Amino acid sequence: MAENIRIMFTHDFFMAILLPALIGGVAVTICSSLLGVTLVLKRYSMIGDGLSHIGYGALSVAAVMNLAPLKVALPVVIIAAFILLRLSESSSISGDSAIALFSTTALSIGILVSSKAGITNDVSHYLFGSILAMNRSDVILSVVLSVIVIAAFIFLYNRIFSVTFDESFASATGVRPAVYNMIFAVLTSVTVVLGMMMMGSLLISSLIVIPTLTAMRVCTSFKGVVFVSGAVSVISFLFGMFISLIFNTAPGASIVIVNVLFFLGASLLGRALRGRSRA
Q1: Which of 8, 2, 7 is nearest to 238 (CA)?
Q2: Least CB-packed of 13, 98, 123, 263 within 10 Å?
Q3: Average pLDDT over residues 88-95
Q4: What SS3 class is residue 118?
Q5: Where does the chain have alpha helices with state H?
Q6: What percent of the chain has pLDDT over 90?
Q7: What is the average per-residue pLDDT within 164-183?
Q8: What is each CA distance from 102 to 50, 75, 81, 88, 124, in whole angstroms?
């Protein structure tokens, strides 16, 4: 353990590997948690899981065809997000069913293509994540996305609030919910694809769902949930990263476990606060 700590803070490892991973990871977790507040409250939380599986299929196909993974995965996932959004608004097929149909199909295609080409090990990091392999372009894209999401929440807070809770009221006040839903679909798609590099397609949805659920256990206002969700997400990421480096565990799984511990703690705290208010 002492040796791992020493290596972690050596100049070459910190500057070349750890610092980019921390910057990119914090940016992605902020985006995931903020977008997750709206997605969870609108009952679209599973869309992150579905899009990540679709992303894995696209990335696997791109790897087999020797194409740039992000250039293939991003447009595919964005198109899939639009389709899932339209289907969730349709009465012909429910949102959960559409997500299950698309995600399992895409995941199966990805596994079949990669296994047939004999590159299963080469694309396994898309399933389980490899945050220490984030390159400069991934970090820059993550930071830009984070700035866009934070700016959207600051300048469009009232509109996001109305679209999240009551689309009919939002429409009556001149807000176009369909436009904001599409914007969220695009931002969520980009976040999911970037997050797959960090957490893997199997775990990225945890960054979207768990921090919001944690914040909802102790906060009663939308603004409070937004702030607490973002804080919990970043803190969980940092703790999880350092735990994984010190004890040589999988980063993605370590981050999820820390998030779950925060959720359990918030659940106990929320129950205690509610009990005190009733007394």
Answers
A1: 8
A2: 13
A3: 61
A4: coil
A5: 2-8, 11-13, 19-41, 47-64, 69-89, 95-117, 124-128, 136-155, 157-165, 167-172, 177-199, 204-218, 222-247, 251-278
A6: 15
A7: 82
A8: 7, 15, 10, 12, 20
pTM of the model: 0.86
User: 80-89: which pairs have CB atoms within 8 A and are 24 or more residues apart?
Assistant: 80/50, 80/51, 80/54, 80/106, 80/189, 81/47, 81/51, 81/185, 81/186, 81/188, 81/189, 82/182, 82/185, 84/47, 84/50, 84/51, 84/185, 85/181, 85/182, 85/185, 88/44
The span from the CA of 131 to the CA of 254, in Å, is 12
Q: Is the dihedral of CA 271, 272, 276, 279 positive or negative?
A: positive
**How far is the C-alpha of 100 from the C-alpha of 276, rounded, in Å?**
41
Structure confidence at residue 279 as a pLDDT band (50, 70, 90): low
Q: Are 120 and 114 in contact (CB under 8 A)?
A: yes
Largest CA distance in the chain: 64
Query: What six digits make up the tokens of 155?
Result: 């300048």
* Confidence bin at 211 (pLDDT 50/70/90): very high
Q: Which of 23-27, 45-49, 101-105, 231-235 has the highest mean pLDDT?
A: 231-235
pLDDT average, residue stretch 220-249: 91
Cα–Cα distances in Å, from 20 out to 29, 87, 106, 260?
14, 38, 30, 25
Question: Can you give the pLDDT at residue 94?
Answer: 60
Confidence of residue 143 (pLDDT cuts 50, 70, 90): confident
**What does the alpha-carbon distance between residue 129 and residue 255 come to, in Å, rounded to a whole number?**
12
Amino acid present at 83: I
Read off the DSSP letter of residue 263: H
